[in-house]
Specification:
By secondary structure, the chain is of the alpha+beta class. It has three domains: 111 residues, Trigger factor ribosome-binding domain (Alpha-Beta Plaits); 94 residues, Chitinase A, domain 3 (Roll), CATH 3.10.50; 175 residues, Trigger factor, domain 2, CATH 1.10.3120.10. Helix content is 47%, strand content 22%. The chain is built from 13 helices and eleven strands. β3 and β4 form a beta hairpin.
């Protein structure tokens, strides 16, 4: 094998002209003969026993050429890529130029990892919000905690919005019960939107022990068997329950935290909310900076890289849906879309992600950033602590290379942020000017 020419094209593509000599091609032809001879029926010979020359004399010397090209091409292409030190992206488009006893010549057009020219990544400006935590913020958090620690108590009155009704129900389509339409002792929060539209509202005003028929029309995007159909649910209310929220006082603080007084709990909440908002402000600051870095690079990104990223996004979304118990085909049916449309919509975000990845990789090379074994270990420990997992289990299922990439990525973001200038957001500037 020899590379006769390596021509660079636009959009980070390369055309390799590759020549396979007569000896290599002859070896490939013989392999093709050994592979195909059993499928050829030659009079006077048992299957697979006819000599190559007999077969070639009957069908022509080119009879094994196509298979021989298929045999020789992959290795020749890989050797050529290695010889030219190309970082290829995706699969090549192959064009056969010449094929004969003297050998084979073919052209392979393939996308390569683009050359990236970094723009500015130090001294950038980005808005960063000043973190303020008011008493109202702390009180709102306390209210959320009280809601989470509320309990349901039974009441002797009619159902109101916000109540929880314990019900028995069964659905009928033209008088016939349908699958999945029956439940017993089901707790339904009125106003939660858990059931089909119109169901919960018709329970308002009912009391424990009452029964009622409810008319419902299923949405058009429901399961095919019931989509758009009018049905009747027979419902019985077993119990009416309302939410009882605890008083926010010292006793509440003792119940929900390690503190003895509400004052101490408020101080701790203010500290935590401040830390959360500082982290959120920092992430927002970094996101703007990295977007500027990505926008500032100069490179010709091959479509193959974007298509591959869009495919990754599609596969990740499929896994996410499956983890929620929703087959991707069902999701497409519910949303009235196709897989091709989903990939087309993912094209824009995929292009942005590829550009960001290229920018980060360019900074890694420019700064010579690496991830040490100790840094990888610390990252894995953080993951284990965050998700309450055993460290050895994390090491078993989390690839080291993936962790290294994450560590280096975080170093890039920190480098850009540490060398950036934080300015007040437009809203804060306007408020300051008004004062």
């Amino acid at each position: 094998m020899s590379v006769k020419n390596c021509e660079k094209l636009e959009n980070s593509k390369v055309v390799l002209t590759i020549e396979v000599g007569s000896e290599e091609f002859e070896a490939a032809i013989n392999k093709a003969y050994l592979k195909l001879r059993g499928k050829m029926h030659i009079a006077g010979f048992r299957p697979g026993k006819a000599p190559r020359k007999i077969i070639e004399s009957m069908y022509g010397v080119e009879v094994f050429y196509e298979e021989a090209v298929n045999i020789v091409l992959p290795d020749a292409y890989e050797s050529a890529v290695k010889e030219q030190a190309l970082d290829v992206v995706g699969y090549p488009e192959v064009e056969l130029v010449e094929c004969g006893k003297e050998g084979v010549t073919f052209k392979a057009t393939v996308a390569v990892y683009p050359e990236v020219k970094l723009g500015q990544y130090k001294g950038l400006e980005a808005p960063k919000a000043e973190v303020k935590v008011m008493a109202a913020d702390v009180n709102a958090r306390l209210k959320q905690m009280a809601e989470r620690n509320s309990r349901l108590v039974s009441v002797e009155r009619a159902v109101k919005k916000g109540d929880t009704a314990n019900i028995d129900f069964e659905g009928f389509d033209n008088g016939v019960a349908f699958d999945g339409g029956k439940g017993e002792s089901f707790d339904l929060e009125i106003g939660s939107g858990s059931f089909v539209p119109g169901f919960e509202e018709q329970l308002i005003g009912m009391k424990a022990g009452q029964e009622k028929d409810i008319d419902i029309t299923f949405p058009e995007n429901y399961t095919p068997e019931l989509a758009g159909k009018p049905v009747v649910f027979h419902v019985k209310v077993n119990e009416v329950k309302t939410k009882e929220v605890p008083a926010i006082d010292d006793e509440f603080a003792k119940d929900v935290s390690e503190f003895d007084t509400l004052k101490e709990l408020k101080a701790d909440l203010k500290k935590k909310i401040t830390a959360e908002r500082k982290e959120a402000a920092q992430h927002a600051f970094e996101d703007v900076l990295m977007k500027k870095v990505a926008d500032g690079i100069e490179c010709e990104i091959p479509e193959e890289m974007i298509d591959a990223q869009a495919e990754n996004m599609l596969n990740n979304f499929k896994q996410q849906m499956m983890s929620q118990g929703i087959p991707f085909e069902q999701y497409l049916q519910m949303t009235g879309s196709t897989e091709a449309e989903f990939k087309a919509q993912a094209h824009g975000p995929a292009a942005e992600q590829v550009r960001m990845d290229l920018a980060i990789e360019a900074i890694v090379k420019a700064e010579g950033l690496e991830a040490s074994d100790d840094e990888v270990e610390e990252n894995m420990k953080s993951v284990a602590e965050k998700y309450g997992m055993d460290l050895e289990m994390v090491k078993k299922y989390l690839p080291v290379e993936q962790v290294k990439e994450q560590v280096i990525r975080e170093k890039v973001i920190k480098l850009v942020a540490d060398n950036a200038v934080a300015v007040a957001p437009v809203e804060e500037k306007e408020e300051a000017e008004e004062k």
